[in-house]
Write a structure and sequence with these properties.
The complex is a heterodimer. Chain A is mainly α. Chain A has helices at residues 14-44, 54-57, 60-85, 89-119, 128-161, 165-197. In chain A, helix 1 runs parallel beside helix 6 and helix 5 (128-161) runs antiparallel to helix 6 (165-197). The longest helix of chain A has 34 residues, at 128-161. The mean pLDDT of chain A is 95. The model of chain B has no long low-confidence stretch (mean pLDDT 93). Classes of the chains: A mainly alpha, B mainly alpha. At the A-B interface, helix 1, helix 3 and helix 6 of A face helix 2, helix 4 and helix 5 of B.
Chain lengths: 198, 94
């Protein structure tokens, strides 16, 4: 394995560099996945049948809390990668742990939101609008859930093996995934919630 | 020591993201036409997305920069064609 010390650890081998590029290509496919969900949502958002409309069920406070939690977690994992590049394992692990806690907080609010929707009679079966809404939010929420476990396993590996070209590469790729989830949330926040409450 | 862990570029990126979120909230707290509101949301959302990619995802820092941006733009073009193609045929009745 040829290690180039002039580059950050996560880029230090050819294999690492290709893995990062490969993950960017995966994110390109994820953009298209969410595009199909948004396309379906925009098509169906006014087909509310006998159910409630977006303006009737959206609440600004939980949505804003979710937004701040995810935005902050995205910033904190950025600090984690910065600490990793400085070779500061302890700071990196603290930042990654805070990221996951904020992510768990986000997920808690989203679960509360889903329970609330079902409680007030906005379920997957209520109308085309609620089906498209819950599918879009749910797909994002599942990504966050997966990310929590992924991040946890990476933390365990860093603790066991330390910062190596391999673990640094995995951590960087996870950070790309986490930032991507925040990007998708920005669009959900803007074009589902705020547009719906305008 | 602490300062070293909080690079100015990323702190500014975070502050700017919060500001953009606050600007987007104007559409909720004030009365405005649909067109003006959507314009504000499109501008704030896309700037914030770009900020994440460039500042936090380090998209332009290696020799793969060209491939990474080509890939993002490709994904984005397909996304926009999917969304606006759907709206054109199914919602706007054109």
């Amino acid at each position: 394995m040829k290690i180039n010390n002039s580059l950050p650890l996560e880029y230090s081998t050819e294999e690492n560099r290709l893995k990062i590029l490969g993950f960017w290509i995966f994110l390109g496919a994820e953009i298209m996945l969410f595009a199909t969900l948004f396309a379906a949502y925009f098509t169906l958002e006014n087909r509310i049948g006998n159910g409630p409309s977006g303006a009737e069920i959206f609440e600004i406070t939980p949505v804003l809390v979710e937004t701040i939690l995810l935005l902050t977690s995205s910033f904190v994992i950025g600090l984690g990668i910065h600490a990793m590049r400085l070779g500061n394992k302890k700071a990196m692990m603290i930042f990654f742990s805070i990221t996951l806690l904020l992510g768990a907080g986000f997920l808690g609010f989203e679960i509360y939101e889903f329970v609330h929707y079902i409680h007030i009679g906005a379920t997957l079966q209520t109308s085309a609008f609620t089906a498209a809404l819950l599918t879009t939010l749910g797909t994002h929420g599942l990504h966050v859930t997966l990310g929590l476990f992924w991040g946890l396993f990476i933390l365990i590996q860093i603790k066991k093996r330390g910062l190596t070209p391999e673990t640094a590469n995995k951590s960087f790729i996870f950070s790309l995934y986490w930032h991507f989830l925040d990007i998708i949330w920005i669009f959900i926040f803007s074009f589902i919630y705020l547009k719906g409450m305008m | 020591m602490m300062k070293e862990l909080f690079p100015l570029k990323q702190v500014m990126g975070f502050v700017f993201s919060i500001v953009l979120t606050a600007v987007a909230l104007i559409v909720y707290f004030t009365d405005m036409s649909f067109a003006v509101g959507m314009t504000i949301l499109l501008v704030t959302a896309f700037i914030q997305a770009g900020l994440q990619v460039v500042v936090f995802m380090h998209s332009g820092e290696t020799d793969d920069k060209k491939s990474i941006y080509t890939n993002i733009y490709y994904g984005l073009v397909i996304a926009l064609i999917t969304i606006f193609g759907t709206l054109l045929t199914l919602v706007w009745d054109m």
